[in-house]
């Protein structure tokens, strides 16, 4: 029996689904309103990844997409091992120190998750049934203007886990997570790794992206309805005070 629609994770193998899912999540993020009643949106940076335990011949075992408010700026797969810039923002960011640092962290992330995926598959599934892991790291400004990170994971496109790095808390999503309870949420090493990314690297990434996002809008104009709101003062900006990424 299929689980309720609210528990289905819509990031499938096709890249198009990755884009649709995060566009809906990011572009609709409303955190408040101005005195005139104008909605204020939180600019978000997110990374979607899809990992399979058994890739088809000639196909990559992982894919990653980076998006700002639903606008894709990078693409990566584990076959080419190259981070490809996408769109004006990607072209601006590719020559920065952030670009290579980002690649290193993302590669470490999918390698770590694939090891976990293969361990889980060995314990739960037979070799004839490949297991896939989908996930999302999202960073956005909260109502208090502070950047906040969150993780979401799914096995075979069904949401099973959420992780809040602010309070180091895992939530197992039922009914999808019942079979996988204790797999991700009881792994202390993985928990520490996710916290280091979201509470360290990703904060600096958001700073870099925001700086270049503003420059891009000045030169090219708003690229989405959400960007139009930001250009008109309808965006909540993060109160990031740390220095540039090394």
From TrEMBL:
Keyword Signal: yes
GO biological process, one term: antigen processing and presentation of endogenous peptide antigen via MHC class I via ER pathway, TAP-independent
Keyword Disulfide bond in record: yes
Subcellular location: Membrane
Coiled-coil annotated residue ranges, if any: none
Domain named MHC class I-like antigen recognition-like: residues: 43-215
Cellular component, GO annotation: external side of plasma membrane; extracellular space
Domain of life, source organism: Eukaryota
Pfam families membership: MHC_I
Gene3D superfamilies (UniProt xref): MHC class I-like antigen recognition-like
Leader sequence segment: 1-27
Keywords on record: Disulfide bond, Glycoprotein, Membrane, Signal
InterPro entries in the cross-refs: MHC_class-I_related, MHC_I-like_Ag-recog, MHC_I-like_Ag-recog_sf, MHC_I/II-like_Ag-recog
Protein known as: UL16-binding protein 1-like isoform X2
GN (gene name): LOC113927500
């Amino acid at each position: 029996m299929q689980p309720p629609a609210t528990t289905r994770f819509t990031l499938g193998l096709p890249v198009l689904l990755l884009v649709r899912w995060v566009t809906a999540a990011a572009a609709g993020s409303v955190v408040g309103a101005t005195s005139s009643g104008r909605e204020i949106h939180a600019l978000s940076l997110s990374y979607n990844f899809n990992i399979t335990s058994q890739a088809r011949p000639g196909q990559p075992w992982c894919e990653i997409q980076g998006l700002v408010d639903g606008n894709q700026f990078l693409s990566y797969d584990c076959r080419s091992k190259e981070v490809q810039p996408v769109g004006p923002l990607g072209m601006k960011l590719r020559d920065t120190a952030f670009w290579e640092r980002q690649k290193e962290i993302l590669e470490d992330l999918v390698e770590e998750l694939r090891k976990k995926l293969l361990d889980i598959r060995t314990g739960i599934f037979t070799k004839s049934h490949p297991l896939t892991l989908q996930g999302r790291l999202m960073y956005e400004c909260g109502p208090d203007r502070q950047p906040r990170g969150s993780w979401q994971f799914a096995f075979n496109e069904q949401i099973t886990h959420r992780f809040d790095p602010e309070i180091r808390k895992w939530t197992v999503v039922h009914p999808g997570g019942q079979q996988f309870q204790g797999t991700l949420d009881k792994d202390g090493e993985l928990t520490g790794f996710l916290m280091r990314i979201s509470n360290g690297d990703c904060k600096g990434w958001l700073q870099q992206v925001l700086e270049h996002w503003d420059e891009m809008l000045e030169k090219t104009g708003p690229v989405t309805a959400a960007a139009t709101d930001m250009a008109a003062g309808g965006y909540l900006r993060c109160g990031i005070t740390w220095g540039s990424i090394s």
